[in-house]
Amino acid sequence: MKTTSDFPSINERSPDGVKHGGGAYRVLIVDDSMFVTKQISQILSSEGFEVIGTAADGVEGVEKYKELYPNIDLVTMDITMPKMDGVTALEHIVEFDNDAKVVMVSALGKQDLVKKALLAGAKNYIVKPLDRKKVLERVVSVLG
Amino acid sequence: MRVEYINPFVESAYSIMKEVLNAEVKRGDLYLKKSSQPVMGVAAIVGLAGDVEGRVLFDMDEKTAIDIASAMNGEVLTEIDDLAKATITELANMITAQAVTKLHDLGFRFDLTPQAIITGQNMRVTDMNVEALIVPFELPQGKVEINVAIRERA
Ligand SMILES: [Mg+2]
Fold it and tell me: Where do the domains of chain B lie, and which CATH numbers do they carry?
C-alpha cells in the first residue's frame, strides 16, 4: 500500500521506544517473575524498545547492568526479589552509574519501599497490575 | 457436548500453569456436572461465540487464587486485590487463547468474549441446556478446576 505517502496522516507518530536520532532504547528488566518479565517485555517491544537483558534477582540485575553499561538506557526494577531486593540493587546500580535511569515496579502497599527507592535515585515507579498505558507513560517520562 | 472441545483446554492449562508457576501440575479425572453447580470462591470466566457458543470457567478457592497470583508475580499477596484479580484473569486468558488457537487449527470458528472475574461465597453457576465438563488440576497452591460448557449453535 502506497497511500501513506500520498496522504500523510496527522496522527502518525514514531513509537515511544525509538530515539529521536533513530535506534531503539535499550532496556534491562529485573524481576523474579517470568510472568511479569514477559508482560513488561511485550509492552515495551510493541513500542519499539529493545529488551537487551533480563535478570531474575537483584544480584544478577546489578551484574547485568555493569556488563551492558554504557549501552543501556533504562532498567525496570522489581522490589520484592530473592537474594537481593530491588531497592538494594538500585543502590548498587546508582553507585556504579549516577545517571542510571531506573523505574521501580511494585505491588500495592509498598509505599515505604517506593519512597526509599525514589530517595535513592529511582526516577519513577509503576504499581502492579501493569497496564500498557501506565507502563509506557512512566517509562517515557523517565527517558524524555 | 463433544469431548474434543475440552482437550485443547486441558493441554493448554497444563502447559501454561506449569510454565508460569514453575511447578508440578497434576491432572485429575475429567467428570461431568449437571446444569447447576457450586463454584469455589474465585472464578474467571471467558465466553466463546461463533460456530460454537459457551463459556470456560476457571474455578478455585480464595486461598488458591491468592497463592497462584503471589507465585506468578513474585510477590506475597494477602487478599484478592486488583493485582490478584488481574493475574487470575490473565492466566485464564492465556490458557483460553492458546486453546482457541488449537481449536481454530482444527477448523472451529469462534471468538473470545471479554473475560470477567467473579468472587464471593456460596455461588452457583447455571448453564441452560448444556452440560459442563470439568477437569481438576492439582497444583502446589491448591486445586483449580477448568469447567467447560460449549455447544454448537442451533
Ligand atoms: Mg517480585
Answer: 3-152 (3.40.1550.10)
